[in-house]
Amino acid sequence: EVFLPEEPRAAPPVDFLQELPSYQSALRRRAAAGGTQERRAAPQGSAGLRAAEARGPEQEGGELAARPAREYPLTIAEKRRLRDCQQADIKYVSGWEQWKRTSSKSLKKVLSEVRELFSYLELWRHDIHSIEGKFGTGIQSYFSFLRFLVLLNFIIFILMFSFVTLPSIISEYGIFNSSFAKISPKNIELHCTVYKPSGNMGLVYFYTYLKDLLSGTGFLEVTSLFYGYYTIDAAWLSILRYNLPLAYLLTTFAYLALSLLWIIKRSVEGFKQNLVHDEDQFQSYCNKVFAGWDFCITDPHAARLKHRSLQYELQTDLEEERLKQKIADRTMKEKLRIYSLRIFINIIVIAVLSGCFYSIYRATVFSQENSNVSIGHDDVSNTNFQANLLVQYLPSIVITLANFIAPQIFSFLIRFEDYSPAFEIRLTLMRCVFVRLANIGVLLFSLWSQISYCATDECKACGYNYELYPCWESEVGQEMYKLMIFDFIIILAGTLFVDFPRKLLVTHCSCKPVQWCGLREFGISDNVLEIIYGQTICWIGTFFSPLLPAIATIKYFFIFYIKKISLIHTCKPAARPIRASSSNFFFLVVLLIGLVLAFIPLGISIAHIPSSKACGPFRSFNTSWAVVPDTILGFPTGLQQVLHGIASEAFAVPFFMVICLIMFYFIALAGAHKRVVEQLREQLIMVRFDPLFCTPKV
């Protein structure tokens, strides 16, 4: 029995949604349901209809069967008939069209095989797939993020080594008939050019080498690891002149731009996924119940954790609904109480941050003053070695303690602010991000306050404290080097001396307090903040220590295996995991914040603070940036005028206006896309009730 449709009503208004493929498919299904008997009389009608549909692009756009048969939602038999029809129509196509189609298919096949080959060469491909299978996509996103940082640092190292370190080594040793030129600084006081690195001379104890290796002083200070090594003004390769100061500066801009573009590219991909998952509460419940399971999980323990995770997410959603209702029902007295409490807690947070910053400042000043004093002594006893090493690492120790203590205080205080669970996590994470990245800024500010302090006319003539910091760029590079090394030591020590003993106690001791503590959770956010903190150090320190990205690459390479072993053997997955799509986007946003904050100290160092006159490629210039206008003066007059015009206000103001217009256009486009998504969601909700989309019952 066939139920005829109701009497035709007024046609609904035509809009762009009716031109979507989903709407056209609904119309075809309705037409197909209405013409069942005709298809029974003509069994080949289905294939003929599809074949005509496949020939549509040829008639409209001039291409035959733009889509292959496998892309159509048909049965195997219908796809075979469609393919036969497509092949039968080839004789009506010109030779040029046939060659183009064959070439396109061959190219797609070659590209597919190349992509498959590169997927097998991908770093840690099997390990990451194994982690994803045992612990889900949330933890897998952390290790994928770690792999991204390894590749990024390796490419930065290739840039710095190829354009800065390698030309210096080639010219210094005369390889390929090369030579170098060292231009003496002009119009500079002689006392500003005195630099005697604290290299080891004579009989040297073993622990002195160990101290130098950990602190970047001694024999390491005069190597290509630090800024002071690069004293060449120009390298000559046959008749070609290589401007090393300009190459040094441009390579710095290149690795910062590369990092920015790469992070933005990956962030855009994560933002698209995050936008798709930004559903309303009703759809959130449906997605968690019907599509919340992670089918990559094969480990039974991980499956139980996923069950508890889904249960926790549903409880969290219900709790947020309850809190929303509670917030809506608050009286004015309750609002005043909670706002006053939040203001008081934020004052405590500011006080904690101020205490951390002041402690780092005092530790840095004390370390710099006493380290410079101890360098001049010849006492190499073991006690003096330990004390000197402790003094040099004092800022790193204080920063590590601040990074550990402050988040614990923030996690305790957030409970009294009466926020929703999701907002509590985000606010705590942002506070932790701020304290980690701001600590690096305070360290650099403390160093620069010491570098810029001048009390005599001789010091003012140099522009910096030449007595304590004859090569201040190398000093800053050594501090970044020590932060990098100490951060790796803390991560390694935490796994060896905290996680493994805790695992043994929980496994072999049945005491209730030990079992109550249990294994440490593998917190994704905390681990990500650790490596972002280290990456920010690398970005800042690469200008002062060109080979620091190589150390960061090796560091993250070992951290991958340390964290993998820790996850499998000594830790348990977090009971409150975060979704992989949102976590990837969050990781990249925090990494982007770290990169933007790295621009600030580097910009100040390059454009504002006078460069050292006793070392480095910029000793002949007042600042590092001064090499750019000096290079432009050597260009032809016409090119100079073009560059000066680009740098003038007459070009900058219209360019800024055009950029603003483009930005407003994309904002409007994003708003339009958002409205489209909302309308599509409304149609998904109304699809059961709208007869326009309903198929007649048979």
TrEMBL record:
UniProt keyword terms in alphabetical order: Membrane, Transmembrane, Transmembrane helix
Domain TMC: 471-581
GO molecular function: mechanosensitive monoatomic ion channel activity
Any one of the GO CC terms: plasma membrane
Region (Disordered): 27-65
Keyword ATP-binding in annotation: no
Cell location: Membrane
Topological category with respect to the lipid bilayer: Multi-pass membrane protein
Residue spans crossing the bilayer: 148-170, 246-264, 339-361, 393-416, 428-448, 585-609, 651-672
InterPro entries xrefs: TMC, TMC_dom
Signal peptide: none
Family to which the UniProt record says this protein belongs: Belongs to the TMC family.
Record-given protein name: Transmembrane channel-like protein
Organism: Eudyptula minor (Little blue penguin)
